[in-house]
Write a structure and sequence with these properties.
Order of helices and strands: HHHHHHHHHHH
Structural class: mainly alpha
Helix content: over 70%
Largest sheet: none
Strand content: under 5%
Oligomer: single chain
Distance between the termini: 25 Å
Number of domains: 1
Shape: globular
């Protein structure tokens, strides 16, 4: 356990002030900033005053619309690749393997840091959505705040669902990033898979494509359904994550040249 804790602390320190940490912050605040600007400059089209009791649901959907289909998958790809390939960039893999750490500690601690940063992004994004609701009324002078109680249950449940649908992307991108020591190659493959997922949504068997689950969840929230009734994308997402992670670890420990 001490070995694992040291590995986890080491991986966390490596990510501080890196591009990945800034990507989490900027990416989490980007869409809420746009939503706030829309409400400040064109409040007649979208604001608590115009949408009334439906405001929170509309704000949540509008905020996640662009994020779920393209921006979030791309952000996950970039962040995962950056963290997974820190040692390649600094030519430090051989130094890592000289430390008194087990292979599973090195592998799992890096993966946990990626998941933690993904959770960080979701928290920042959710806080940003809430701020984008209360800030515009103060700035544009209307002081018309959202009516009704804040829908905590809906926000937590749906945000958790989006998190689960991202897990296959994390697992697959982690595998790709450890197999290829070139950042552009890893990102290029990931981007190609994201573009493929957009087309896969319109295919009746698109639910087998692991990068398409976040868009599927977004479509379901919008009141439509693109998957058969027997398909549960959340269980499939979890299964993809577990299977790919296990395969990735086997490939990782069997790789002759890890540095």
């Amino acid at each position: 356990m001490n070995t694992f804790n040291h590995s986890l602390s080491s991986e966390w320190l490596k990510t501080r002030r890196t591009a990945a940490s800034w990507l989490v912050i900027i990416g989490g605040l980007f869409i809420p900033l746009i939503m706030a600007c829309i409400q400040i400059f064109v409040p007649d089209k979208f604001s608590p005053q115009t949408d009334g009791m439906e405001y929170w649901g509309i704000l949540f959907l509008k905020s996640w619309e662009s994020m779920a289909i393209f921006l979030m998958p791309v952000g996950v790809i970039l962040c995962t690749s950056m963290i997974a390939q820190l040692e390649y960039k600094n030519n430090a893999w051989k130094q890592v393997f000289t430390l008194p750490q087990t292979m599973i500690s090195i592998f799992s601690s890096k993966l946990l840091i990626i998941l933690f940063m993904l959770a960080q992004f979701f928290v920042i994004f959710t806080i940003g959505i809430i701020v984008s609701a209360y800030l515009p009324p103060l700035l544009n002078g209307t002081h018309v705040f959202p009516m009704g109680d804040f829908p905590w249950n809906m926000f937590v449940k749906q945000t958790a669902a989006f998190f689960v649908t991202c897990l296959p992307i994390v697992a697959i991108q982690y595998l790709i990033s450890l197999r290829f020591n070139n950042f552009m190659v890893a990102v290029g493959i990931g981007m190609a898979l994201v573009v493929g997922s957009i087309f896969a949504i319109n295919w009746k068997y698109g639910f087998i494509f692991p990068y398409s689950y976040s868009p599927y969840h977004m479509i379901a929230l919008s009141g439509s359904k693109r998957t058969p009734d027997w398909v549960n994308i959340y269980w499939i997402s979890a299964a993809w994550f577990v299977v790919v992670t296990v395969v990735n670890y086997i490939l990782y420990i069997s790789k002759k040249e890890k540095g």
